[in-house]
Queue: 2 jobs
Job 1
Amino acid sequence: MELKRPRFRRPPLERAAWREWLIIVAPALLLVVAAFYITSRFVQPAPPKSIVITTGGESGAYYKFAQRYRTALKRDGIDLIIKPSAGSLQNLQRLRGAGNATPARRGKCNA
């Protein structure tokens, strides 16, 4: 004669169990959502670790200014990538270029 193992069945959740669960989980969930909302309002993203600047020709004054900026920014751990250009038209073409993610391209330039 073979013995059968009794099957364990969980009792269905009663209304009281659901109420207790909501009393514990709902305030915790609201607290987490409120914390994320408050954090998103006051915390600003970190500055970029590299910046691209377009200048005039390599013999011009703007290129030399950019080299000074590179030295100053290097102290703070920011890499400045200098791209010499043929002039204003090429600078505008670079700003309007496809896939460009500069602040001026996104419409957030303060200049």
Note: DSSP finds four helices and two strands in the chain.
Job 2
Amino acid sequence: MRTFKRVLAAVIAVVLVLSVASCSLTKEWSYKYGDKTYDIGVYIYALYSSYTTAQTYAADAKGYKENESFMDLKIKDSDGKKAVARDWCNDKADEQCRELVALDKLIKDKNVKISKSDLEAAEEVCKNAWDMGPYAAYSAQYYNPIKSQVEDYGVSFDSFKQLFVSPVGNSIYALKTEKLFDALYGKGGSEEVPDKELTEFFTKNYVDYSCVPVNLYTSETGDDGNAANKAFSSKKIKKITAAMEALADQINSGEIDFGNAGKTLEEDYSVSESDISTNKVDTLENLKSNNEDIYNALEKLETGKASVKTVGIDGDTPTAYLVVKNDVTKDTKDYIEGDNRTSVLQNMKSDDYKDYLKKEAKKIKDDKKFERNDGAINGYQPDMFFKKSDESSSSSGSDSDSDSDSDSGSDSE
């Protein structure tokens, strides 16, 4: 009897998988705009993406348990919005799909040109992620095909590639958004940003600095083979920082420049040349996020001046930095007229662009050419992606397992 139940559970599991996958085989659609149709797999992938994102929010929710469904929990997303996880997933998936429809409509309406070579390169990025995983090109240990995660739910490669955003390289969706962005805010665009405005944004939100780190500790390998860090004595630390402050004073008086100071520190304290940053340009926001100590030091400096910032003095790896604030206006030509213009423009207009796409996605619901296949879409709920961590071991257990184990295994399918 126990064996019969196992066979029956296996048959039910196969039927369920095939019934979900059949949607992509029958080309059931989810959204339409004019003569363009989006397969149901596009919506399923959007729902899967929203589910995995919601899972990260749910981990902080009250009542969350790792091996239980979180669909009924109230979550808070990165924008501060609170909602029941199931509703949040459904709404987010619908929003993503409408943004895709709006994006394609805008590209057509504004006659945005995308080269064949760019599309082929973007498709290859998508194909590699589908077959091997987004990071597999770096190492075999990152082999994790997205195909194996979503195909059984009814997502084909053609559906997947329309919404996939790659963390390493331009996917098709990212390429489209980039080209539309350029058509709006770039040279000759309908919302072109004048050089004067872009220059003002650059000089206000970017910083140019040079920096030399000097370790105030030593690293030694113990008898157990493990490296151990030990801070220098307070006397030695004071001597090194005093020498660095003397160099900063010489820079401030005009006796030497940063290059001379860097060479001195390189020779006296074995600083690696590769650790010396010269004329490094970054946004103030990025610098504050990645190295708040350097950010704070630069905030207090006038252009062309230097100072020494010591961090981690109470720990095992104290470090002193000689920091110089350079004249960021000298970088204007390279960043406004050169190849870096696009990155500055994106930093300036990215929030506006996101809001623009959201508004267009909201507007499209009232467009007479837009259709949403509620009958098909409502047949898919984010709950279907939930799997217990021991699900595979339960379904592959021996005949000596209990009847209750077999039933829970089939239910989880």
Note: The chain has 17 helices and eleven strands.
